[in-house]
């Protein structure tokens, strides 16, 4: 089961935007493990010790910012609106995407208990005010995928790919879709054929508007690209376009590329307003 949990946090009045950065992917990673340990210590240990992690974390963002916020997959109409109140400079939001059945169930069970919990991100004290949970099975994601061509990706945080010890900072189709295929097949009960990777050569960039940015960690920075990329594909295999679209929608849960568990590679699929209206997910409050 796939899950996106949208956390809304509140900071004390003295903790303002001047003292608390809109980053925190690395610190959110640590805070999430602390939360998970309180709910399921064995699962937290198992995930911490395994090489690939079955989740992605977005960047922490202030509700007072004027730039577009992350839209929950398949339910943009329910996404939190931009802040307008005087207290919203002390309110923050981030999203955890789970790719694994056991982890998704653990987050879903614990969400209500986590609301109202005091946490720390780095040295900053915050309180979890609300958690909204969005769930979908892999089967639903696959069967509900439309055969959209081209596909418009928006990379919200620096995205890169690690190859032979170097950082690749271009949205090369084989790297973008290859990253998604590997994570899908690692966690999905309905894996896609490995030969699908051969079809990625049929995907090309139709247009883009990207730039490079540095993503800040505590002791280092990593360069990546951000912005919009429109991919189109020409293949004689009638099934491949459906699988490409499923992988694109999966990106809204998994992120793309390197260090998506620490805020990099946060991705959204841009669709027209009339297409959004057909999406069917419903948000579930943790306080249900």
Distance between the termini: 19 Å
Secondary-structure-based class equals: alpha+beta
| Count of domains | 2
Q: What best-fitting shape do the alpha-carbon axes yield?
A: globular
The major β-sheet equals: 7 strands, antiparallel
Secondary-structure blueprint:
Layout (H helix, E strand, L loop, with lengths): L1 E9 L14 H15 L1 H9 L5 E3 L3 E2 L28 E8 L2 H14 L3 E4 L2 E13 L1 H6 L7 E9 L1 E3 L2 E3 L4 H15 L8 H4 L3 E14 L4 E13 L6 H15 L12 E4 L2 H4 L7 E2 L3
Antiparallel strand pairs: 1-4, 1-6, 2-4, 3-4, 5-6, 6-13, 7-11, 7-12, 8-9, 10-11
Helix pairs in contact: 1-2, 5-7
Structural notes for this entry:
The two termini are about 20 Å apart. Residues about 65-85 and about 280-288 have low confidence and may be disordered. This protein has two domains: about 1-135, Alpha-Beta Plaits (2-Layer Sandwich), CATH 3.30.70.1890; about 140-275, Alpha-Beta Plaits (2-Layer Sandwich). It is globular, with a radius of gyration of 18 Å. The chain is of the alpha+beta class and about 290 residues long. It has helices at about 25-40, 40-50, 100-115, 140-145, 175-185, 195-200, 240-255, 275; strands at about 1-10, 55, 60, 90-100, 120, 125-135, 150-160, 160-165, 165-170, 205-215, 220-235, 265-270, 285. α1 crosses α2 and α5 (about 175-185) packs across α7.
């Amino acid at each position: 089961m796939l899950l996106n949990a949208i956390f809304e946090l509140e900071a004390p009045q003295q903790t303002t935007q001047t003292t608390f950065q809109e980053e925190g992917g690395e610190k959110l990673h640590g805070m999430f493990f602390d939360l998970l340990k309180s709910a399921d210590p064995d699962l937290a240990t198992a995930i911490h010790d395994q090489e690939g992690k079955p989740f992605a974390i977005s960047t922490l963002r202030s509700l007072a910012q004027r730039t577009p916020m992350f839209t929950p997959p398949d339910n943009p109409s329910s996404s939190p609106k931009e802040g307008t109140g005087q207290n919203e400079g002390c309110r923050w939001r981030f999203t955890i995407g789970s790719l694994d059945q056991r982890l998704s169930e653990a987050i879903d069970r614990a969400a209500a208990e986590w609301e109202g919990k005091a946490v720390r991100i780095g040295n900053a004290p915050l309180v979890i005010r609300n958690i909204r949970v969005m769930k979908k099975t892999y089967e639903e994601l696959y069967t509900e995928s439309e055969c959209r061509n081209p596909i418009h990706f928006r990379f919200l945080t620096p995205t890169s790919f690690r190859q032979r010890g170097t950082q690749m900072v271009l949205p090369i189709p084989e790297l973008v879709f290859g990253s998604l295929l590997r994570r899908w097949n690692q966690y999905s009960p309905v894996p896609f054929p490995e030969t699908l990777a051969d079809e990625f050569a049929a995907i090309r960039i139709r247009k883009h508007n990207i730039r490079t940015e540095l993503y800040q960690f505590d002791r280092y920075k990593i360069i990546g690209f951000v912005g919009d990329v429109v991919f189109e594909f020409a293949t004689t295999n009638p099934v491949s376009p459906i699988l490409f679209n499923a992988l694109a929608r999966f990106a809204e849960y998994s992120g793309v590329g390197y260090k998506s568990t620490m805020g990099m590679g946060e991705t959204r699929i841009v669709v027209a307003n009339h297409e959004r209206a057909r999406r069917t997910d419903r948000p579930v409050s943790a306080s249900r």
